[in-house]
Amino acid sequence: MAALTTAEAARPSRGGRPRDPSRDGVIRAAILRLLADVGYGALTMDAVAAEAGVGKATIYRRWRTKQDLVVDTISDLNRDEAPSPDTGSLEGDLRVIMHTLVGVVNGPTGAATLSLLSTVPRHPALAEAFEKGPLAVWRQSFEQVWENAEARGEVRPGFRSSVAAESISALMVQRWLLTHRPVDEAYADEVLQTVVMPLVRSQA
Questions:
Q1: What is the C-alpha to C-alpha distance for residues 99 and 151, in angstroms, rounded to an integer?
Q2: Which CATH architecture has domain 90-203?
Q3: CATH hierarchy code of domain 21-76
Q4: φ and ψ at residue 17, rounded to 5 degrees
Q5: Whole-number average pLDDT of the chain
């Protein structure tokens, strides 16, 4: 489902009427839909306002430019959705994360991300937003999983920095980005059982 933040921390107003934080989620959802439908190049502030059902002034009070709007939206992606599971076993924790990732790539965030991939290399601000936003959030989730597994003795000290740890989500991301074949929970479970867990055990 939509992997965007529901936190409504108000940012300073840029003048005019006080900003209504309750509209942030609606506006960001509209931004993701438009990014998926028309891409970054064709996205306009007016289109966002129309898609979200708000006045243009509401958009311009939050963001001065289209880049500001998209960077802010990207920076908040997955912040509330990426889990920090502690099921009592590494396999259980990885299953939670991989199932959550399935929901993300099949939802509005996944569609918007696919649309943005060709644009990001030409816009350093967008690349930085991805790095400091969703990529950092997912790294933190995996770090917690490896820390818990290390404390339980399921992986060796330092495993979290290994190539094996880095490759856990690689097959899912490859299928999503390159083949456009379905990425569902059944596929995630197959990857976990036939590739990930045997790899982890071989490195324990």
A1: 23
A2: Orthogonal Bundle (1.10)
A3: 1.10.10.60
A4: -65, 150
A5: 87
